[in-house]
Specification:
The chain is α+β, with helices and mostly antiparallel strands. The chain contains 5 helices and 4 strands, in the order H-E-H-E-H-E-H-H-E. It has a single domain, classed as Beta Polymerase, domain 2, CATH 3.30.460.10.
């Protein structure tokens, strides 16, 4: 996917997540191969969604399924999303979160 296309996808995604979550949305981060500009045609788009609180992980997946599916189909790319509580994002020291803090790009 060309840079202009994924920039547009990320802009739409952030707008839609803002509508879904309003003030619960604390951040959206692109990470992985697209953030490192090492993507290939088979790469997925990795997104971290930071929320003030999670109802439950499965409910957040369900809540965002329609917009993720629509954008995946429209842009021809798999979007992988991950959720984390704001408190955990700021304090938890997992390898994944450490990596996203180091090389992730705020959307």
């Amino acid at each position: 996917m060309k840079i202009l296309q994924y920039d547009r996808l990320l802009k739409i995604l952030k707008q839609e997540l803002s509508l879904i979550y309003a003030t619960r949305l604390r951040g959206v981060y692109l990470f992985g191969s697209y953030a490192r500009q090492e993507q290939d045609p088979e790469s997925d788009l990795d997104i971290l969604i930071v929320l003030t609180d999670l109802d439950s992980y499965p409910s957040e997946i369900k809540r965002t399924s329609e917009i993720i599916s629509n954008l995946s189909l429209e842009f021809g790319i798999t979007i992988s999303r991950y959720f984390v509580r704001e408190h955990d994002w700021r304090t938890y020291d997992s390898p994944l979160l450490r990596n996203i803090r180091e090389e992730g790009i705020a959307v």
